[in-house]
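Sanity check. The docking grid for 2-phosphoglycolic acid depends on where the pocket ends up, so I'm generating a full predicted complex first rather than guessing from homology. Inputs follow.
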Amino acid sequence: MRTPFIAGNWKMNMTAAEAEAFCKELKELYKKQGEVKTAICAPFVRLAELVEYFKGTEIKVGAQNCHFEDSGAFTGEVSVPMLEELGIDYCIIGHSERREYFAETDETVNKKLVRLFASSILPILCVGEKLEERDAGKEKEVVGAQIRKDLEGLTAENVKALTIAYEPIWAIGTGRTASPEQAEEMCGYIRSVVGEMFDAETAEAVTIQYGGSMKPANASDLMAMEDIDGGLIGGASLKAQDFNQIIEF
Ligand code: PGA
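Predicted complex below; grid placement will be based on this.
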């Protein structure tokens, strides 16, 4: 059985003081020992602090991006070996904001996934369709193509350890959540594509999260769906109480 996985995506938020207060509060609230996997994906400059704050707890730390090369002339970038030195566990790859504003493509996403699977850090791969693609009935075509390109060259063992976050772009930060049925249909579809690319055992093992305006009020309905194994939480991961309520779905 797949263990539920709730990950926060802080995006470009949280000063040092805000992060410290959040971590203190979440540690006090956190009661789901052993029942869920939990992580906070923070800006690079917060990672070392978070690893320190969450030491001795089950709460893991993740980055929001990395480069696929190990070193070199890539001003402003951070490599996988640098992240490994911090002792973090996860890295978000291919978030729609990176695809839209930072020229992330399925090709660079694929290179980053390949590089991360040669490290101790596990990727959380984001996929999802735009509103106009959904309105045109093309959501499966778009997301299926992303999955096929992004997972190219990975092994079944890699994919069993992978988390895929299905995040319809029209639901991110908009307050407009996909209905549990819409989210389930797409998460089930992603699982079927993984099954076609690899095998039934890999499809059964891969963790699939829903992301897009997930909050305490809708988390349990989304989490009740068979193919939804967790959530990637943006806005609601900035308040420890809200985030903990989602963990307790
Ligand atoms: P949201 O963001 O929860 O604020 O919609 C989710 C995400 O972008 O990962």
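Relevant for the grid: The pocket of 2-phosphoglycolic acid is lined by residues 9, 167, 172-173, 211-214, 232-236 (CB under 6 Å).
Also worth noting: The chain is about 45% helix and 15% strand.
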